[in-house]
């Protein structure tokens, strides 16, 4: 049963990643047809992000009432419906409308499944879970590219991914008895019932503020690094645009492949050590990028190292949550962590864009270093607080 559920969760995370890069891939074709400025893609992404934040903060409540299986199935259904809505949208306001269920569904399934894996499975599965998300996020643009090239239609790209989500939804609904059986076993073995924590109550728990800042900083660093890598390489390092784009894509490949490799060692080394190793590799990568001597290969390799260093941090922070704060609090705190993560990934990259516009894009590694230092400080402070609490 564990294996069957795990396969379903992996499949769900592939589906979670599939739509994430569709908008970026299709937008150059979409915005002239919709007769809107190119910058309007930011409006859609902000609506989606707002939905994910709202649903992440409320996941604990709905999971306690309906269970992880039903929440996952309904959430995937919501994203499927939203994707079909995108495929038939002829105006920009319709895209904005369909972005609401897309964001709400994505945030709920993300928080619910992360907590389920953190409670029921070893740390290696959390790393592989997020590796599968990376596979989905990598395959999505290829699907859109195929539809644009062969069918000359961005609508069919959204419809294809939506069809995959519908198939997964059917599988998830048929698998609900398996989820319910696992939930019953878990409930019988629990010594404490899951708590419904309000945000202000969660913030009073020692270490929660630190982990939220660390999570915010990580997502700010990862998304800013990925979004502005090509621009930095071209505008500051003078690297050819095609070369810069190819190496920038390796940043994401480094994250995905790194998480695959992490799964083989994370149970032996432990989540805390994996986070420290990741932060150390990011430090080396940033040092290579920030070197005053502009050696092209060193800079490009540094960017890949930043991606590899990012790989263990996100899944290991999540998997450590039940241990740090108690299984009864984990769903509530993971939901808040997800909201913090989405906030960092939504607002920090555009803020750097404004900063670069009015100053210089050469601040790219400095901006990333700020969040790296914040992560190091917060994770080590969290570790001290948790060790102090455990020793009592």
From TrEMBL:
InterPro entries named among the record's database cross-references: MFS, MFS_dom, MFS_trans_sf, MFS_Transporter
Membrane topology: Multi-pass membrane protein
Main location: membrane
Stretches assigned to the Major facilitator superfamily (MFS) profile domain: 5-392
Domain of life, source organism: Bacteria
Pfam family, any one: MFS_1
Gene Ontology molecular function: transmembrane transporter activity
Spans traversing the lipid bilayer: 34-54, 66-86, 92-113, 125-144, 156-179, 211-235, 247-265, 277-295, 301-320, 332-355, 361-379
Record's subcellular location: Cell membrane
Phosphoprotein in keyword set: no
This protein's GO CC annotations: plasma membrane
Keyword check for Membrane: yes
Keywords, ordered alphabetically: Membrane, Transmembrane, Transmembrane helix, Transport
Family of this protein: Belongs to the major facilitator superfamily.
Protein name listed in UniProt: Major facilitator superfamily MFS_1
Lineage: Bacteria, Bacillati, Bacillota, Clostridia, Eubacteriales
